[in-house]
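Subgroup meeting minutes
Present: P.N., E.W., G.H.
Scribe: E.W.

1. P.N. recapped why we're keeping a running log of single-chain structure predictions: easier to compare across weeks, and new members can see raw inputs and outputs side by side.
2. G.H. added today's entry (166 aa).
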Amino acid sequence: MQLAQLNVARMRAPLTDPQMADFVAAIEPVNVAADAAPGFVWRLADETGTGATNIRAFDDEMMLVNLTVWEDAEALAAFVFRHAGHAEALRRRHDWFERADVPTAVLWWIEDGHIPDVAEAAERLEHLRAHGPTPYAFPFKLPVPQPPTGGEAGGVGFEPTSELPR
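Output recorded in log:
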């Protein structure tokens, strides 16, 4: 099993605006570092190959998507919080992106070799928003342990509305 993650963010200004210059400058080096990070498997990229800034998952031209696959939660967390370039971008996210009152990130387990598409990822995020954390779709702060192998790729042996154990 591998861990898929989607995060979305609504930009405060278009990518061409000077307010976004530091963010735009960080995209390629952070993505190159992610590609080389231990536990990294795959990331969504547009035709430039350096990021996914031209891909829209929602009817909002200001909404960016980041979709990746990792070997496990530990590898994802190590990159997100310990890679200097990504950690700096994370600290500055409110300079570039609006605050949201709904979850903007979702994780879910997938079968090895499965590459999630944007529609699948958006559905997982909508499920998290509608039902809260479940083994089907959960937030970064409440990771669900990897299920036993042999589950189905879509639900990994869980019903979409299963509640997490308390």
